[in-house]
Design a protein that fits this description.
It comes from Emericellopsis cladophorae. It is found in: Membrane. This is Rhodopsin domain-containing protein. It holds the Pfam family Fung_rhodopsin. It is a single chain. The protein is mainly α and 346 residues long. The chain folds into two domains: 253 residues, Rhopdopsin 7-helix transmembrane proteins (Up-down Bundle), CATH 1.20.1070; 65 residues, no CATH class. It is built from twelve helices and three strands. A three-stranded antiparallel β-sheet has the order 1-2-3. Strand 1 and strand 2 form a beta hairpin. Helix 4 packs parallel to helix 10.
């Protein structure tokens, strides 16, 4: 792995934060403006993930300013400040990285149908495991050095420091990588047998495969700490993992923003135009001998949300149904004629 100069830390992390923030804002815009819906649990967890990433970025910048990447501070006040900042940064990465994982678990609650009970059980077990890992990480970072966290910024020789502990780092990483692999693997059994066109299956697989970036960043970070010892890389890879996880969670909701203008419906599982209209007419001969009674119904389907896919309970497993809001306008010929006879304003 190439060594990253320390001056690259700030601009690279800034770009990663900007990308993840743009993804979150776009997702929330789709939810509130495009769809007019309230935020879901997944959305709120995504907001928490973004706030945590901003906090991690802030602690990284403070640590950089205080000399974490050199030159190391010389005064006791600066050294204590640096230790406090790095101790706080432990929470924003080690525990905060679980917020995007929990957001994905919340998405899976809607994604995995009751007709696949075994997969739903696995989803619930994964959620419980993720929460357990997050709490364990938080308590481990807090109390590894004893019941008084202040020992972590002690300047005494040989004082315990959670931030510098390789044992804590390895335990945290094992829980992190195990939860990543399980969470990002969970939706792939859904793809088998789904009645979707091949290009849509590829698209769904590509979205969840983006989680590989998160796993790769985590593995690279572990190797950097254990073998390479290039600390600027550690800072950048930590933010890369966080940003990639946030973007992966945001992607499934961004379909309406990516749809081409004027794209037509492609069928039951197609992308759908923004508004679909159909008109049907029925003719009934009246007993009085008057003109036929004509009833015309205009059916308009609301705009396809393109957001979180929701699998409904159906008779077969591995079946996905697309739902849409439909409005119907019903009008008879007599109503039409009366409307035509209305005076037109000058």
């Amino acid at each position: 792995m190439l060594e990253t100069p320390k001056v690259a830390v700030v601009p690279v992390e800034s770009i990663l934060i900007a990308l993840s923030l743009a993804a979150v804002v776009a997702r929330l815009a789709v939810r509130r403006v495009h769809q007019g819906q309230s935020l879901t649990v997944c959305d709120w967890l995504l907001v928490a993930s973004m706030l945590d990433a901003i906090a991690l970025f802030t602690t990284d910048m403070l640590a950089y300013k205080l000399g974490a990447l050199g030159p190391y501070p010389t005064t006791e006040a600066e050294q204590i400040s640096l230790k406090k900042v790095t101790f706080a940064g432990n929470y924003f990465y080690d525990t905060g990285v679980y917020f995007p994982k929990l957001a994905l678990c919340a998405l899976y609650v809607k994604l995995i149908p009751p007709t696949m009970p075994q997969l739903r059980k696995a989803m619930h077990a994964t959620s419980v495991l993720t929460v357990t890992f997050a709490l364990t990480t938080c308590f481990l970072d807090t109390f590894w050095c004893g019941t008084h966290p202040s020992v972590n910024w002690s300047l005494e020789d040989g004082a315990c420091s959670t931030y510098d502990s390789k044992e804590v780092f390895r335990i945290d990483w094992i829980m992190n990588i195990v939860s990543d692999v399980i969470i990002f693997s969970l939706p792939f059994p859904l793809l088998k047998g789904l009645q979707l066109k091949p290009r849509y299956i590829v698209g769904v697989a590509a979205i969840f495969s983006a989680g590989i970036v998160t796993v790769a960043a985590s593995v690279s970070r572990f190797a950097t700490v254990e073998v390479i010892h290039n600390w600027p890389n550690v800072y950048i890879l930590s933010m890369t993992e966080m940003a990639a996880a946030i973007i992966v969670v945001s992607l499934p909701a961004l379909k309406p923003l990516l749809r081409r203008r004027g794209e037509g419906s492609t069928g039951q599982y197609g992308t759908g135009a923004s508004v679909q209209r159909a008109t049907t007419s029925s003719h009934v001969k009246l007993s009085s001998g008057r003109d036929p009674y004509v009833a015309t119904a205009h059916v308009s389907s609301a705009e396809d949300s393109g957001s979180d896919v929701e699998l409904r309970t159906v008779g077969r497993s591995n079946v996905i149904y697309k739902t849409a809001h439909v409005s119907v306008t019903y009008q008879t010929r007599e109503d039409t004629r009366e409307g035509d006879r209305q005076p037109t304003p000058n």
